[in-house]
Amino acid sequence: MNFDELNISDDIKKAIDEMGFEKLTPIQESAIPEALNGHDLIGQAQTGSGKTIAFAIPVLERIFIPDKSPQAIILCPTRELCMQVASEIEKTGSKIKKLKVLAVYGGQPIGKQTRVLKKGVHVVVGTPGRVIDHIERGNLDLIGIERVVLDEADEMLEMGFREDIETILARTPHQRQTLLFSATIPREIKQIAERYQKNPKFIKISDKRKNIPKITQYAFKCDIKDKFNGLTRLLEAYDVKLALVFCNTKKSVNFVSKHLKDDFKADSIHGDMTQQVRDKVMNKFRNGNINILVATDVAARGLDIDNVDVIVNYDVPQNIDDYIHRIGRTARAGKRGFAFTLVSKDEIVRFNNIRKANNVKIIEKEFPTLGEIDAIKTKKLLNDAKSLIRDGNLERYEKIVDDAEEDNSKLAAALLRMLVEN
Ligand code: AMP
Hints:
seven-stranded parallel sheet; 18 helices
């Protein structure tokens, strides 16, 4: 459905057109007509679904500009969301003359907000705590409220805003319309809906993110000279089965693969190799003769390999598209995967741009310490030993241990140490 087909004012249509939107998102398609008809709604939808415009349009469509008192109030869990929602409503209402939207949240001097409120606003977007504050100071009168939106209601409850929300709802006129949006619908949300909504329509938009592969994304900030050492620690600590290490240049590929070969089963591919050589390397990778492949973006394009469990960006990729391409090589077919990005000082700006554009948070971490790596290796060896004990077939070695006439636990400890430290 296109925005053109909605029964709304030309001012809003014009603004939406300027924002560059043509088609409604699923939550907009379900929620807007229902809300315009006056129904209460429970919209189960995530950030990114377009839910803000799903409530911004019905809210703005019903604002009576000559009345300069608050007619709609939108409650959000955080200051950031308040600012974001207020800005989206302002954009959607940019063609409505004299429309006033105000965000009120903690952390900003209350005096400034008070002055704007006193001059008159049509739409208030606020965190529950600060809204209560304004009500108690007599800055905000809810008597003229016709529409209340609870945005990210589950988050607000988690943050302990339940009582504030109920206080606010109880102070608005009974005949108001209440639109509730929440990513999840726990029992407490149902209780609020039962108490404060009238026959709400329930709209559920399936979470597309479920289909997004499970990639754990970490960034490691370090000096450029510590990158290689950091890489080897990661490869050891994460018990890598198949890893792809991406570099930005052939020179970097050659350096990394040459040094990795000392301690790992690694090899490389880059654009200067003949197809024959590349095929040979790829075969080694596929059948497990090597388990770490160092590559440039171009060389890795079109490679069809599953089961890669770790991606390392030894160099920060040039842009978000390359980042997404690179990490998309892991977590295929519903499996889990890791993506590590090593970030040196002169790559921080580029990395921050990628981080902002990425739709999943990239968590900052420190390289594992040698102690942590030892602990991981020891645990793995012990687990392997335990499953060997369960499987049996140890008689020959038991005899050797008996013949050694040493304390058994000391002997085991010494063998373990030799294995871990080798
Ligand atoms: P939200 O779920 O409200 O946080 O919106 C996510 C993003 O989608 C925002 O950047 C919106 O500006 C954008 N957006 C909202 N509606 C549409 C639409 N119909 N078409 C394309 N983008 C949209």
